[in-house]
Write a structure and sequence with these properties.
The complex is a heterodimer.
Chain A: H1 2-34, E1 44-48, E2 54-58, H2 59-64, H3 72-77, E3 84-89, H4 98-106, E4 117-121, E5 130-134, H5 143-147, E6 153-155, E7 161-163, H6 173-177, E8 184-185, H7 194-198, E9 214-215, H8 221-225, H9 231-235, E10 241-245, E11 250-252, E12 257-259, H10 260-266, E13 282-285, H11 294-297
Chain B: H1 2-23, H2 31-57, H3 72-83, H4 86-96, H5 106-127, H6 136-139, H7 146-166, H8 170-179, H9 185-194, H10 202-235, H11 247-274, H12 282-313, H13 316-327, H14 331-349, H15 357-383, H16 404-427, H17 433-449
Helix pairs in contact in B: 1-17, 2-16, 3-5, 3-11, 3-15, 4-5, 4-10, 5-7, 5-16, 7-10, 8-9, 10-11, 11-12, 11-15, 12-13, 12-14, 13-14, 14-15
The chains are: A alpha+beta, B mainly alpha.
């Protein structure tokens, strides 16, 4: 009898303690993930606050704010209240191609399927050629989204057009429809390391790439959620690329933070092929008063 | 009464003769046919191997790349969709218009239509980067996308075409069931099942006539829709050469012209190999050739309409595209399509000697080749003229020469069409027997009345 009682007691307590332990560990992890500790030392990194201001923080602090992983459902909605835009100052580009390299590195791309291209453009025979960095324009009236038969590519509330490469059937209608040739296709098995293929896929990271599906510039929503600028913006040595939020009317190239409306007004900002009615969210500033003569930059 | 009886006996006797003759083509053993079928199977097998390679390594085995992101798979798809339109031309439009001489051609055209639309559906799956996700089209289908319109309308057309082939064939299948006794058991069983207990009862005949008429009317808008919607796959984009309101009628008229050519080629070879000279006469070739001239003229009109405006204005990339076609890389192909593929049939077939079976068949081959390359010219050069210049890419991105895998799969799709046609021609009476007899009887009744 007594033996039995002790046994029952132990079983009950076991359940109780296990429950407590479980609850405790959940709470503990939550608490740990919320606390921030500032450690001395480390590199200083520029980040944009949700208000669009630029501030420098310690790299060690940054590691606490791990870039947010968005699941498929979350990545379809977009970040509430935001309208992301980009501005490209054509006067400053010298074809350094750092944006391409940074993009390639972070998205694990090979040079044959770039998300960014720097094109040599000459508007007419008498005007001087200039370099035009071009990526997906994240159109408000996106032809690619309109034609997709399965909704694998979609427009979010924060202006970003993304691709779900786990739904894409590889029909390439979006590539035919995009007037800006912004999209690339994984014709073969994408070359990426085992570590990369093991990463859990999110449309916000476009990683890992999958054979037989379409890809393109995604405006790095994972970086934005982590309160960081997209890789191309920070990589540009000349501050050509500005990124920001139209709702806040602010864009930054990592050094200067400026009013979007003022910048576009003062420098006669335009959108490429406005007449197509695609309503791009990437603006260009005309290549006037250039920082670099074109000849010197042609490698 | 007695007079009536004797004429009816005469008719019965003649009908028996016709039935016997037309049923004799069903399953007639022939060594040439065996070789033909083996040859087709070999081509299909090579195509399957190429497709296995494509499944294994991805679309990298094709010559398609970014920019030229659609290739001969898509142009071949458009081609087969165009071929499938003849089903509606002959078995519906001509039939509804009570063009009497066209009756013997209905089954041939309907068989070609079914074979072509099946292979068009297959080729579009071959073009997919992820054929394993085909069901996403059903799970996540967006009705706003022209591809979904195309899927829906092709399925509808396939079903109507199969019904339009099968239902009017019921009396003939019943004949096969009743009269072909010394054939293998599985074929006896097949005819028995497929005949759906057809007994030539008045009620059955009445219902069949009604159903056939409904199908014949229904197939016309669907046939126009398949090719118009296929043209919208292109017209709904901003590409030069595709951004045209003319594209729908242009595609449909081109398809009718191609369809007439295909039926002429089919008539020629079927007549020869099944010895059907009594049923497919030289007169048929003469009349089909006249139809082909008419359809070519209609197509010529839309063709001029398609190129004159852009060529007159020469706006930006549209102008580049036109230059490339008229005098650039694609000029040879373009003028081959225009001159032997379009002008020649009009010129040759205007004359009586040009409407002789052999000449008509040769000219129709030119039309067929022209039509295939025309689809190539519709799809590929447009993709190579985007708004933004193509820079920083591998040399292979600038041109498009289909790889052996693409050619093998394309040839296999042709072999597939021919195989389906051959098998159906072997299994069923080629000339609609019951219909033929009815028309002959009616014809005689009318002539005696006069």
């Amino acid at each position: 009898m007594k033996k039995n009682e002790t046994k029952r007691f132990t079983r009950r307590s076991l359940i109780k303690y296990t429950g407590l332990l479980g609850l405790g560990s959940i709470l503990g992890v939550k608490l740990l993930s919320c606390t921030s500790s500032s450690k001395p030392g480390g590199k200083m990194i520029k980040v944009m606050t949700p208000e669009g201001k630029l501030m420098e923080v310690n790299e060690t602090d940054m590691s606490m704010a791990h870039p947010h992983f968005a699941n498929i459902e979350e990545s379809r909605k977009g970040i509430p209240g935001r309208k992301f835009v980009m501005v490209v100052d054509l006067a400053k580009c010298k074809n350094a191609r750092e944006c391409i390299r940074a993009c390639e590195h972070h998205h694990n791309l090979t040079p044959d399927r770039p998300f960014i291209k720097v094109l040599e453009i000459q508007d007419n025979p008498r005007s001087a050629p200039y370099w035009m960095p071009k990526k997906c324009f994240q159109c408000d009236n996106p032809p690619c989204v309109k034609v997709c038969p399965v909704g694998a590519t979609y427009k979010r509330s924060d202006n970003i057009v993304l691709i779900d490469n786990e739904r894409c059937i590889g029909c390439r209608f979006c590539m035919a429809a995009c007037p800006y040739s912004a999209r690339v296709f994984n014709w073969g098995k994408p070359k990426q390391s085992q570590d990369v293929t093991n990463i859990k896929y999110s449309p916000e990271t476009s990683t890992p790439s999958k054979i037989g599906t379409v890809e393109k510039c995604d405006f790095c929503p994972d970086m934005i959620r982590g309160k960081k600028l997209p890789h191309c913006i920070t990589a540009c040595p000349n501050g050509v690329l500005y990124f920001g939020d139209a709702n806040e009317d602010t864009v930054t190239n990592g050094e200067d933070t400026v009013r979007l409306s003022k910048l576009l007004r003062d420098k006669a900002g335009y959108r490429y092929l406005e007449e197509l009615g695609t309503e791009p969210n990437v603006y260009y500033l005309p290549p006037v008063d250039r920082l670099f003569p074109f000849k010197d930059t042609k490698a | 009464m007695t007079e009536n009886n004797t004429t009816q006996q005469d008719i019965k006797h003649r009908d028996d003769h016709v039935i016997k003759k037309l049923l004799s083509t069903v399953g007639r053993p022939n060594p040439i046919f065996k070789i033909w079928i083996i040859a087709l199977l070999v081509i299909i097998f090579v195509g399957c191997f190429a497709y296995y390679r494509q499944l294994r390594f991805g679309l990298i085995v094709t010559s398609m790349r970014d920019y030229t992101s659609w290739g001969i798979y898509i142009s071949n798809f458009v081609f087969f969709v165009a071929v499938s339109l003849i089903g509606s031309l002959v078995s519906s439009i001509l039939k509804l218009a009570k063009v009497k001489w066209s009756y013997p051609l209905t089954r041939i055209s309907e068989i070609i239509a079914v074979a072509a639309i099946i292979c068009a559906a297959v080729i579009i799956i071959v073009d997919m980067g992820r054929p394993d996700r085909f069901l996403n089209v059903i799970f996540y289908g967006r009705i706003q996308s022209p591809i979904i319109w195309d899927v829906l309308v092709i399925m509808t057309y396939l079903i109507i075409s199969v019904l339009l082939l099968y239902l009017p064939m019921l009396p003939d299948i019943a004949l096969c069931r009743d009269r072909l006794k010394n054939i293998s058991i599985w074929r006896q069983k097949m005819y028995k099942i497929l005949a759906l207990n057809w007994q030539n009862k008045p009620g059955q005949l009445r219902r069949l006539k009604k159903t056939s008429t409904i199908l014949e009317i229904m197939v016309i808008p669907v046939a126009f829709a398949i090719h118009t919607i296929t043209s919208w796959l292109f017209a709904t984009t901003w590409r030069p050469g595709w951004d045209s309101t003319n594209l729908g009628p242009y595609f449909v008229s081109g398809a009718f012209m191609l369809g007439a050519a295909v039926i002429i080629i089919a008539m020629f070879f079927i007549r020869r190999s099944f010895r059907l000279e009594d049923f497919i006469t030289n007169d048929h070739f003469d009349k089909m050739a006249k139809i082909l001239v008419l359809l070519s003229l209609v197509y010529l009109y839309f063709n001029i309409n398609e190129y004159l405006g852009p060529a007159f204005k020469m706006v930006g990339v549209e102008g580049e595209h036109i230059t490339e076609l008229f005098s650039g890389d694609y000029a040879t192909m373009y003028w081959l399509v225009q001159i032997p593929g379009l002008m020649l049939p009009i010129l040759v077939m205007l004359f009586k000697f040009g409407r002789k079976p052999f000449v008509v068949m040769i000219v129709s081959f030119f039309v067929l080749m022209g039509a295939w390359f025309k689809r190539f010219l519709i799809v590929i050069p447009s993709l190579q003229h985007p708004y933004l210049p193509i820079q920083d890419v591998d040399e292979s991105y600038l041109h498009y020469y289909p790889s052996w895998e693409e050619w093998a799969i394309t040839l296999a799709s042709f072999a597939g069409v021919l195989l389906i046609i051959t098998v159906l021609l072997k299994l069923f009476p080629i000339i609609p027997i019951q219909e033929y007899i009815n028309h002959q009887d009616n014809g005689e009744v009318q002539s005696t009345d006069k």
